[in-house]
């Protein structure tokens, strides 16, 4: 058991994860980052009354995937426990995995209309954020024509789906792939590229490679022929929407195995997220996974619903809640600084503000930690490995530093740095007021 909080003191612990919120200075924002430009009075007040610092959520020589970063923040060393993101997503949608399965993320994407597949361009990694209902129709059609006993498709949420290769033998040689985000390699059998890393680019140099990459490429090419003729895609085109005209494989993984969060920290906890990956981590860690109506994984999510769901979990006896909000990350991938600022401001108002006011009104002692999992700079439209800012506030704190703000620069100036991200959870759970940023 971790040395962290092993006693029942009635305190509640809340993590608010602004996915991908960290960024680089943006010229159009007067060299500010979206975090620096956003109006976030509740978050900045907590920074003034708590502590801020920087943390490396992604271990050296590891790709900055959301699986790696969120595992790290929840206290699990990714070097030890990461088996790839797609298997976590599979678990979250109820897929039963065997030890010899290999799992792939299967995006529905929009490619350009060149006749030869390899010369197409990645127009949209999310197929216009296609609805789950429409996606189910298309994935079902693909599965009907491409499935076989050793190959199965599973419908996820929106554009995010799963494909499993069965009976693939032992995986003793699996190691984190340091070249491709969220992938694994076993003697370079599969070399894959996330579609959100190549928006607007020709796909020629990013097609599946490695000793068995041709298997996946053939499936992708066949899916393009199937989906081009689907009436739903024709209807989408006629109504001005982007067609989901191909599947795209990435994020190779194997069956995950995490120790219980409760056994590590003696805290009963819950996870609130619209993203299958984070739900999967929660399930594997033995946390209660809460589904919120209207939670979408994009900027039009149910922010208040997540806040009140967290409060409900705490009121019914949970000690810890992890609130994951995907919106800033999606805006970063789209290169949309204005919407990224808007997402951060909505999180401040409708998540941070609500939770702070409700707990204080009820006199509940609490500690709260707010941070991104990784940067998703709007200029790059993909994740980076840079350290991210964090703030920790304890409700018993009486100190205050008016200069403190929650952005990328002030926390870096405090000198507080957590070099191994999986140790941040211990730091948070052991934090008591009295420390501040001088």
Annotate the secondary structure layout.
Layout: E1 12-18, H1 34-37, H2 41-49, E2 51-55, H3 66-73, H4 78-81, H5 85-92, E3 102-111, E4 122-124, H6 132-146, E5 151-157, E6 160-165, E7 175-176, E8 184-185, H7 213-228, H8 231-238, E9 246-253, H9 261-265, E10 269-272, H10 276-284, E11 288-290, H11 303-315, E12 320-325, H12 327-333, H13 337-361, E13 366-371, E14 388-394, H14 409-413, E15 417-418, H15 424-430
Parallel strand pairs: 1-12, 1-13, 2-15, 10-11, 10-12
Antiparallel strand pairs: 2-14, 3-4, 3-6, 3-9, 5-6, 7-8, 13-14
Helix pairs in contact: 5-10, 6-7, 11-13, 12-13
Outline:
With 438 residues, the protein is an alpha/beta fold. It is 33% helix and 18% strand.
What does this structure look like?
By secondary structure, this protein is of the alpha/beta class. It folds into 2 domains: 12-76 and 258-430, Alkaline Phosphatase, subunit A (3-Layer(aba) Sandwich), CATH 3.40.720.10; 89-253, no CATH class. 33% of the residues lie in helices and 18% in strands. It contains 15 helices and 15 strands. The chain has helices at 34-37, 41-49, 66-73, 78-81, 85-92, 132-146, 213-228, 231-238, 261-265, 276-284, 303-315, 327-333, 337-361, 409-413, 424-430, and strands at 12-18, 51-55, 102-111, 122-124, 151-157, 160-165, 175-176, 184-185, 246-253, 269-272, 288-290, 320-325, 366-371, 388-394, 417-418. The strands form 3 sheets. An 8-stranded mixed beta sheet has the order 11-10-12-1-13-14-2-15, with helices on both faces. Strands 3, 4, 5, 6 and 9 form a 5-stranded antiparallel beta sheet that branches. The protein has a two-stranded antiparallel sheet with strand order 7-8. Strand 5 (151-157) and strand 6 (160-165) form a beta hairpin. The chain is globular, with a radius of gyration of 21 Å.
């Amino acid at each position: 058991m971790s040395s962290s909080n092993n006693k029942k003191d009635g305190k509640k612990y809340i993590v608010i994860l602004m996915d991908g919120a960290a960024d680089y200075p943006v010229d159009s924002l007067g060299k500010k980052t979206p975090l620096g430009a956003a109006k976030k009075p509740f978050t900045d007040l907590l920074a003034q009354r708590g502590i801020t610092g920087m943390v490396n959520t992604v271990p050296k020589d590891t790709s900055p995937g959301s699986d790696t970063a969120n595992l790290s923040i929840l206290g699990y060393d990714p070097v030890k426990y990461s088996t790839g993101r797609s298997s976590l997503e599979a678990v979250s949608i109820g897929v039963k995995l065997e030890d010899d399965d290999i799992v792939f993320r299967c995006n529905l994407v929009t490619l350009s209309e060149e006749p030869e597949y390899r010369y197409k361009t990645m127009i949209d990694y999310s197929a216009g954020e296609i609805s789950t209902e429409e996606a189910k129709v298309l994935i079902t059609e693909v599965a009907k024509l491409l499935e076989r006993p050793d190959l199965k498709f599973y419908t996820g949420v929106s554009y995010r789906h799963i494909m499993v290769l069965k009976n693939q033998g032992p995986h003793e040689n699996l190691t984190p792939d340091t070249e491709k985000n969220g992938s694994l390699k076993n003697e370079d059998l599969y070399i894959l590229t996330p579609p959100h890393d190549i928006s607007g680019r020709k796909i020629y140099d990013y097609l599946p490679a490695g000793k068995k990459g041709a298997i996946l490429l053939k499936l992708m090419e066949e899916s393009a022929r199937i989906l081009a003729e689907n009436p739903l895609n024709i209807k989408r085109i006629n109504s001005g929407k982007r067609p989901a005209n191909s599947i795209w494989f990435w994020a190779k993984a194997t069956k995950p195995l995490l120790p219980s969060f409760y056994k590590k920290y003696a805290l009963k906890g819950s996870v609130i997220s619209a993203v299958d990956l984070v739900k999967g981590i929660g399930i594997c860690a033995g946390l209660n996974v809460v589904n919120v109506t209207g939670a979408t994984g994009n900027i039009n999510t149910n922010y208040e619903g997540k806040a009140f769901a967290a409060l409900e979990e705490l009121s019914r006896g949970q000690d810890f809640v992890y609130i994951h909000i995907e919106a800033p990350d999606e805006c970063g991938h789209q290169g949309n600084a204005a919407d990224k600022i808007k997402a951060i401001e909505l999180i401040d108002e409708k998540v941070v503000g609500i939770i702070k006011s409700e707990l204080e009104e009820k006199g509940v002692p609490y500690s709260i930690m707010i941070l991104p999992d990784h940067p998703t700079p709007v200029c790059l439209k993909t994740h980076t490995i840079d350290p991210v800012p964090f703030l920790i506030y304890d409700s018993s704190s009486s100190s205050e530093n008016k200069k403190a703000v929650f952005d990328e620069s002030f926390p870096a100036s405090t000198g507080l740095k957590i070099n191994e991200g999986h140790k941040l959870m211990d730091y948070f759970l052991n934090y008591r007021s009295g420390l501040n940023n001088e």
